[in-house]
Design goal:
Elements (H helix, E strand, L loop, with lengths): L2 H9 L3 H26 L1 E3 L5 E3 L16 E2 L10 E3 L4 H10 L7 E9 L12 E10 L7 H26 L11 E4 H7 L5 H12 L1 E5 L33 E8 L4 E10 L3 H10 L9 H7 L6 E7 H8 L15
Parallel strand pairs: 1-5, 7-8
Antiparallel strand pairs: 2-4, 3-4, 5-6, 6-11, 8-9, 9-10, 10-11
Length: 333
Amino acid sequence: MSFSSIASSISSTSAAELKTVEKHLHFVKTFFADQLAETLNLQKVSAPLFVEAGTGINDDLNGIEIPVSFKIPEYSQSKSIEIVQSLAKWKRIMLKKYDFSIGEGLYTDMRAIRPCDKIDATHSAYVDQWDWERVISKEQRNLSYLKQLVEKIYTAIKTTEIVFAQKYSATTPILPDSIKFIHTEELLELYPHLSPVERETEICRKYGAVFLIGIGGKLKNGIPHDGRAPDYDDWSSITEKGFQGLNGDILVWNPELQSTFELSSMGIRVDAETLQRQLKLLDCQERSALYFHSQLLKGELPLSIGGGIGQSRLAMFLLRKKHIGQVQAAVFK
């Protein structure tokens, strides 16, 4: 959908309809945030829009994206400042700063710019999500604990869908009662001749809601299902079932788009051992000297689990919209 067609669609929408959408957006974002905070025992904190470059704090995403950068002369004539791409590593530093205990954590209203992202019906260069992080113990760094947290988040999503439908009679709930867990290796075995996106489409069409485990590590065919940076999610550890990865994506079937639809990316975060291994796997050992990485390697940051849940993505799904431009103010292709 082109920008002109979006603009035309919006211009042809009545003021009353636009106000109704805004009311629905406000409800979904407020209600879900409260559900998330309560179910995961999270405290809301303020989030930065930009951080200093060269510290390792900004999220590198797949490791190839280039963040928006600029200088603030009054701060430094030489140091660059970067708009955040997400807060995966910043949150872990804040867990220590706020002195959260095991079972406690934080969430933020994260706003970011990802200029390298593709722009289409479901993607925007402007990112708004609930970034969350929670302190865990060494014993909780396992697949079973990851699944427990996924189920809690899925329950919060499903509850929001049900209450939204009851309150506004705008939609009919469609999410299944439970979420299906499957590893990327299992998915490859089921659909060996399909691309990763096509595999996701088939499994989501079948189950309605899926948590796809193991994003970043190479599969038996020698190719990762999708890319992940080496320094936040743990995608290389062997689980109790023998599969690699303690991370994954929450995917749902979107009937409006007739396709799979990602709502969240999350995972158990790297410890010192995993960080060293993954930096080596992706030939990024030089990052170990950066502020965030050196803190983690010295054992000065808490073990954690965390992720991001797209605000516009969730609203788009729950309001049954076909384009992200219908729930977000930004620029679109």
